[in-house]
Amino acid sequence: MKKIILSITLLFISMPSFSQTINKSELETFLNENNIPALGLGIITNGELSKIEVYGQLDSGQKAPYNTIFNVASVTKPVTAMVALKLVSQGKWNLDEPLYKFWIDKDIENDKRAKIITTRHLISHQSGFPNWREGKLKFLFEPGTQYQYSGEGFEYLRKALESKFNKTLNQLAKELIFDPLKMEDTQYIWNENIDASRVAKGYDKVGNSYPTHQRKINNGADDLLTTIKDYSTFLISAINSEGLSEEVFNDMITDQTASLNGKHYGLGFEKYHFKDGNYALTHGGADYGAHAMTIIFPETKQGLLIFTNADNGYKTYFDLLPKYLGKYGTEILEIETGEKITIPEKITPYTSSNQKLYDEILSLDKQFFEAYNTCNLKKQEDFYSNDIEFFHDKAGLMTSKKAIIASTQKYICGKVTRELLQETVEVYPIAHYGAIEIGYHKFHNSAEANSASKASKFIIVWNNTDEDWKIDKVISIH
After folding, report:
1. What is the percentage of the chain residues whose pLDDT exceeds 90?
2. 19-337, what's its fold?
3. Cβ atoms 225, 194 nearer than 8 A
4. Is residue 165 helix, strand or coil?
5. DSSP 3-state assignment of 435?
6. What would be the CATH architecture of the domain defined by 353-477?
7. How confident is the model at residue 26 (pLDDT cuts 50, 70, 90)?
8. pTM greater than 0.90 (yes/no)
9. How far are the Cα atoms of 80, 221, 283 from residue 144, in angstroms, in the given order?
């Protein structure tokens, strides 16, 4: 029987991390281990922002608030494209009119290809420009003939718009997008409207912070400052075609050019085409201390936003995309990596199948750890079975009640208290035996005032004897 119980217990340990059974404690542990100080998630359901979840801390040590301001790097580009598309819908701009009439970069003023460039070319990445110029701006090919991702293209559009309307891009976006949608925390530049106390500072792969770049000059391709709420509002407005004519909206969601790995670009957004015929508009962003990804499904009006403030932020995609988007998330990972992604069958979130047993085990847990926290050694000893096995990932295996109690008295009493994270607890009945309790808890060490209390996993095997409940096994993982 002991071997069977231990095998079942180890099965739970070997299950995937937080991708299938995500909870706050596991996610925050993952973020800590990967030097990702803050993570923002936005869930869009039926055309509405149904959930904002922000995890981690800001540079000041304070908990990152729900309205944390992130630098979203290239996720800036769809907003710049939307400024142009709204102007087109108002009859004030033309998608296919050559831009040399309004502005021309001096580096290419003598190149005949400069008179071909249109807004359509720029926001579908067919400008002929490299991503960023090295020295002088140069053409790689004739505009409109092939794909080349280009931040320079969006900067070219910005300069043309600003020249035509005699306003900065931030002013145009404020009038056309930010103010109408009440995006109060979104700016292209660092100005008096930015609440610096809520800005997520960027971090490198080993956890060192980058200097905060307080941009003073608009950039059409990069460094937009925004929140989950604001950018979700923007995406919802886009798929609802707010402020867009029917013709412009259809252009926006229509493939303009093939990009990479079977993807295509519409206008301002990249497109995933899925195996079942559905599609999504998307854009990612990557910069020093920033990784962001947004995905919106126009037909079902669902979406997901992931904002992070770290070089390692992309690592969250591998767990969060399948978790929140199911098969579409897996397909996205396969498209981006070029590899077949195999994940376990979807596991539904835990709900107790036996509420009476769940409540009983929670009550026993409370009784035992009250004795633990108050150093009631006799009561603790009474809870342990005579065949107790205590597995500790760092200390090893102990099989003696007396040795466990002696160790508790020496290292725990008056020094360490345990806090249960009750929302993580799962309880499973074992027929003709008892139950398994799985969850997370924190230990607070008063003898080490500055020590951090991190969530750690535990498993307790409870044996329901004829006389009482006993603890047969404990597995403690730190």
Report:
1. 76
2. Beta-lactamase (3.40.710)
3. yes
4. helix
5. strand
6. Roll (3.10)
7. confident
8. no
9. 19, 19, 21
